[in-house]
Amino acid sequence: MLYKEIADSFNLELDASNSIEDINRLKVKYLGKKGIITEALKGMSSLAPQERPTHGQALNQLKREIEDLLSKREEHLKQIDITRRQIKESLDITLPGNRIPIGSLHPINLVLDEIVDIFVSMGFDIEDGPEVELDYYNFEALNIPKDHPARDMQDTFYITEDIVLRTQTSPVQVRAMQKSSPPLRFISPGKVYRCDSDISHTPMFHQVEGLMVDTDITFSYLKGVIEVFLKEFFGRNVSVRFRPSFFPFTEPSAEVDIGCIICKGQGCRVCKETGWLEVMGAGMVHPKVFENVGYDTSIYKGFAFGMGVERLTMLRYSITDIRLFFENDIRFLEQF
Ligand code: DAH
Fold first, then answer.
1. What percent of the chain lies above the pLDDT cut of 90?
2. Closest ligand 1 atom to the C-alpha of 303?
3. How far apart are alpha carbons 187 and 178 in whole angstroms?
4. Would you call 97 exposed, middle or buried from its count of C-beta atoms within 10 A (0-12, 13-18, 19+)?
5. Which among 137, 142, 166, 170 is the best mutation to test ligand 1's pocket, defined by most ligand atoms within 8 Å of the CB?
6. CA 261–ligand 1 middle distance (angstroms)
7. Do the strands 204-214 and 240-247 form a parallel or antiparallel pair, or are they unpaired?
């Protein structure tokens, strides 16, 4: 009976044990030097000699069972512990890592690079000029005298009476011609500034100017170069037309249109139902401009053109609001 009681209370305690500490406590309680089993074995000496073997056997049997159960339980708890730790410390190497965001080229720069590449492949050099420019280079040398009505076309930021933020890249023409004599063949990409801001205008934007001067330049050269450029940029099938226009620094002047790439010339909102999109201004360099830089107009002829980079970029990527370029919204920029 005594053994059954020991066994029952042990089983109850074993069931309730949840940790190695619990197991160690039970080991001490039942099997330790002063443990229940140990004490019971010691107590055998008080039994009559003929009772000892049966009791001894039963007690030893119980002791082995307890040892066995304890070590099994201990093993089980250790396993649980290991599994728990494995789950906690496990490293799932299939999880995607944290991406480090990497910057990319701005769409305007992507298109600028492309424009530059096309003209460089046609043998054009690159010329640079200041963004804070003298009125003389921005206007006067380009045959736009003070009080000329053509100045109204460009809303100028004046710094002083004689210094402006350049409103166009055309002044680079003048600087380049002052610096070197013909033949000349270059483009000049860069920032320009006008006091204007709405869905298709920003106070700062980009232009690419072009100039070619030599002894035998004709309007056909202009047409050829521009057509090659536009077909490279927009694709072989793009249609191109030249429309008479006016610029003070060219004569004759033209505006260049491409067949609307959105509606393929059918007429849509983007081309204002005309089927055509204006992409640049161009013309034969005005003799006044050559005179201003001391070129002999009886020997030299030239053509010039100027295009807006934002406009080309908007057409290339179907962007409808120019202000997106300068808001620096990462969701917009990371698409390019
Ligand atoms: N500078 C002109 C503008 O900003 C664009 C332009 C037109 C440039 C005709 C040229 C040209 O070189 O020949 O509107």
1. 76
2. 13
3. 16
4. exposed
5. 170
6. 23
7. unpaired
Any idea where the domains of the chain sit in the sequence?
Answer: 3-89, 107-333
Instruction: Specify the residue with its C-alpha closest to ligand 1, atom 6.
Output: 306
Residue with tokens 């053109």: 305
Is 141 strand, coil or helix? helix
The residue whose CA has the least distance to atom 5 of ligand 1 is 306
**If DSSP codes are grouped into helix, strand and coil, which group holds residue 243?**
strand
Nearest-angstrom CA–CA distance, 240 and 114: 19
Do 208 and 187 form a contact (C-beta atoms < 8 A)?
yes
pTM score, whole prediction:
0.73
Kind and range of the H or E run holding 306: strand 301-308
Q: How far apart are CA 128 and CA 136, in angstroms?
A: 17
Helix locations, the chain, DSSP H: 2-16, 20-31, 36-42, 52-89, 107-121, 135-138, 171-179, 219-234, 287-292, 309-317, 330-333
- CA-209 nearest atom, ligand 1: 12
Tally of residues, the chain: 336
Helix (H, G, I), strand (E, B) or coil at 117: helix
Residue nearest to atom 8 of ligand 1 (CA): 306
Residue 1 pLDDT exceeds 50? no
Ligand 1 atom at shortest distance from the alpha carbon of 306: 8
Per-residue pLDDT tens digits for 201-246? 899 999 999 999 999 999 999 999 999 999 999 999 999 999 999 9
Task: Identify the residues whose C-beta falls under 6 Å from ligand 1.
Answer: 168, 170, 209, 247, 250, 281-283, 304-306
107-333, CATH topology level: BirA Bifunctional Protein; domain 2 (3.30.930)
Q: Which atom of ligand 1 is nearest to the CA of 285?
A: 13
Q: Which two tokens stand for residue 41?
A: 């074995």
For atom 4 of ligand 1, which residue has the closest CA? 168
Pairing of strands 125-126, 240-247: unpaired
Is the backbone of residue 265 left (phi > 0), alpha (psi -120 to 50) or beta? left
Residue with the smallest CA separation from ligand 1 atom 2 is 306
